[in-house]
From TrEMBL:
It is a multi-pass membrane protein. InterPro entries: L-PG_synthase/AglD (IPR022791). Keywords: Cell membrane, Membrane, Transmembrane, Transmembrane helix. This is Flippase-like domain-containing protein. It comes from the Bacteria. It comes from Hymenobacter lucidus.
Length: 348
């Protein structure tokens, strides 16, 4: 099968500079207003979230929960540093790029994703930080998010299997065996497109409504297997950081599930949240809290403790970094003056 065609980077006529400048300023102000408005609504206007945030501050400033909360807070830059490292491994395949610029791109993408449906702004934030091959970068961003999804699905299916086999399918060994086989097939089906992306592109060609996305993902087969191994390993490490943060916050609020079932509940919560589309980052809160309180409820953990830990995890990892990303959004260069001719990919 011949290699897929990458993007054509012949430049099109651009609107006048003054018009572009006002469009960019207006867009930045709109993003800033939406982000600040959603942050206010999520942290202060909603009573449950505001109570969890006050309890988080009280725990971090004194009491038995101070150590775990501060440890979870210290892991926030580690979390997004790993995401920046992952994006650096993907972006340097397209053009020479520094880790610092990748970290900035991740924060910009987080802020833009905060106010857009299903976090599609994350694509724009990262792409606008590149100087060339911006359309091919769509495939790179998708590849990074897909690797994170693989880690979530592999761990999450194991977690949900524990609850289904323990609480719902006891006494039904045949159904349990069928569920295990289905989970294994699901994991294989999720991992296969990562290393056989040409099959994914072929499938997009066959399915007419998805055919238009093929050209954006054509860069995926150009990544060598060693680069995919590295990106997937970083994704799994970042997933472990998320789980550790959730566990620390549960500890801070007084929840004490057994380690194994507790990890299964955390993994199941993350999987359910990832599979449900959302209007924006704020909408993720309800999905995560509903699934977390249900799964931990099966372990006889009080809902208020689980709810507080889950809301605090969202505040630490999404709300605060999104506010920090506003500083970079306001300085973002949307239009590049440099030539957008494609450069030869660097070694992945």
């Amino acid at each position: 099968m011949p290699p897929p065609n990458l993007q054509n980077y012949v430049q099109k006529p651009e609107p006048p500079a003054s018009r572009r400048r006002w469009l960019v300023i207006g867009g930045k102000l709109l993003i800033t207003g939406l982000t600040l408005g959603l942050l206010y609504h999520s942290v202060f206007a909603d009573a449950a979230t505001a109570a969890a945030w006050r309890q988080l501050l009280a725990s971090s400033l004194g009491g038995a929960g101070r150590g775990p909360v501060l440890a979870a807070l210290a892991l926030v830059p580690v979390n997004w540093g790993l995401e920046a490292w992952k994006w650096w491994r993907l972006a340097r395949h397209l053009e020479p790029v520094s880790f610092r610029r990748c970290f900035r791109a991740v924060l910009v993408g987080l802020t833009l994703g905060f106010v857009t449906p299903n976090r599609v702004g994350d694509y724009a934030g990262r792409i606008m930080e590149l100087k060339s091959r911006r359309l091919d970068a769509l495939g790179a961003v998708f590849l990074g998010r897909y690797c994170q999804l693989v880690a979530t699905v592999v761990a999450g299916t194991a977690g949900l299997l524990y609850f289904l086999l323990t609480f719902y399918l006891q006494g039904y060994p045949s159904a349990g065996l069928g569920l295990v086989v289905a989970a294994l097939l699901l994991n294989a089906g999720v991992i296969l497109p990562l290393y056989r992306s040409r099959l994914l592109l072929s499938a997009l060609t066959v399915i007419k409504p998805l055919r238009r996305f093929r050209r954006f993902l054509a860069v995926m087969p150009t990544y060598p297997a060693r680069a995919l191994h590295a990106v997937l390993a970083i994704s799994m490490l970042r997933y472990a950081v998320f789980c550790l943060q959730f566990g620390l916050l549960l500890w801070a609020y007084g929840a004490s599930p057994p380690i194994g079932p507790g990890l299964a509940a955390i993994a199941g919560t993350f999987l359910i949240k990832s599979l449900v589309p959302s209007l924006n980052a704020l909408a993720d809160v309800g999905v995560r809290e509903l699934s977390a309180t249900h799964l931990f409820g099966l372990l006889r953990e009080p809902p208020i403790k689980v709810l507080s830990a889950s809301l605090s995890l969202w505040v630490l990892n999404i709300a605060l970094p999104s506010a920090a990303g506003l500083l970079f959004v306001l300085r973002l260069k949307v239009f590049r003056k440099k030539d957008l001719a494609a450069k030869s990919p660097a070694d992945g």
